Amino acid sequence: MRTFIDSNVFIYSFLNQGVEKKQVAARLLVQAIRDGNGYISLQVVKEFCNVLAKKSNKPMSEISGTLDIFNRFNLVAGSIASVRRALEIKWQYGIQFYDALMLAAAEAGGCGEILTEDLNDGQIYCGIKVVNPFKP
């Protein structure tokens, strides 16, 4: 199954904000790389960079160097049509626009699930099941 991976999974794999979350995130990323079924959008990469720039004391060169991992995932390209679809999803489900944008990318990538802690675990949005990999 194709899996869309939210930025928080990447963030937990790089920051030291809890050993358990770091281990779960790293395992999921390695598995997605191995299986070739991990999907992302540029929004994921941008959010990752923003959080690392704010919350870590890593130098810019080190943050920039971590970007190579994203080349190991399938990138869903954005478009005006995907923004329009995100607006539809936002109004249909009453969720935040950036979460809807992520769901629109997952839908465009043909993903059956999305790994995130930002939406309700187990809920299905436009045919995509939300899985919170960090839920106890």
For the structure shown, list the relevant keywords.
136 residues; alpha/beta; Rossmann fold; 6-stranded mixed beta sheet; 6 helices; 6 strands; 14% strand; globular
Give the fraction of residues assigned to helices.
Answer: 40-55%
For this structure, the CATH topology is: Rossmann fold
Mean pLDDT: 95
Largest sheet: 6 strands, mixed
The H-level CATH homologous superfamily, spelled out, is: 5'-nuclease
CATH domain class name? Alpha Beta
Order of helices and strands: EHHEHHEHHEEE
Q: Compute the number of helices.
A: 6
Cα gyration radius (Å): 14 Å
Tell me, what's the shape? globular
- In terms of DSSP E residues, the strand content is 5-15%
Q: Work out the count of structural domains.
A: 1
Which architecture per CATH?
Answer: 3-Layer(aba) Sandwich
Helix-strand category: alpha/beta
> CA-to-CA gap between the ends?
23 Å
Report the count of strand segments: 6
What do these coordinates show?
This protein has 136 residues and is of the alpha/beta class. It has a single domain, classed as 3-Layer(aba) Sandwich (Rossmann fold), CATH 3.40.50.1010. A six-stranded mixed β-sheet has the order 3-2-1-4-6-5. Helix 1 packs across helix 2, helix 1 packs parallel to helix 3 and helix 5 crosses helix 6.
